[in-house]
Design brief:
Shape: globular
Number of strands: 0
Order of helices and strands: HHHHHHH
Length: 196
Amino acid sequence: MKMRKKLLALLCSAALAAALAVPALGYTDVAEGAWYREEVQTATDQGLMTGVTADRFDPEGTVTRATVITVLWRLEGSPDVTVESVFPDIPVNNWAYTAAAWAKAVGIAAGYSDGTFAPGDSVTREQLAVFLYRYALYKGQPIAQGVVDLYDDSLYIPSWALTGMKHALGAGLMTGSGNRLSPLGLASRAQLATVL
């Protein structure tokens, strides 16, 4: 009987130690004091984003084009869409196919000039701003007019992304750091969760 109690106590201690090793959020790479922790929790709880594995969110990992449209599609309630031809580089059995079909149908994603979408490409901050701007247009939301000229690198924003960057700044979806917007910098998964 004593052996059974000792074994039970040992198992309870091991379970408690394991529970303390993995944060309540469930991701081992999202620290308690991380600036994005609450936003990652919210995005996960609402089913908008998932981890790259069961216990890793990869907050510093770059966001792909497929991830952005999938998150926006989920934000919209994951509507079912039927489109004859989505993008030639997203096959029907691809995990982002329905999201891509929806994004194309509602004008959030147009793809590149050659007709492809390049779902695995990393997203720059300016590209993310344009996706968010087009989503706001789709939703009929007011378009914000942030002042990009206040930032030293505003001249690096191409004309096709300027309205999107202004909207993202004015709506508080993006901010600069050290007087720079870093429009060509890659957007991280933590930043996407925060934008949501």
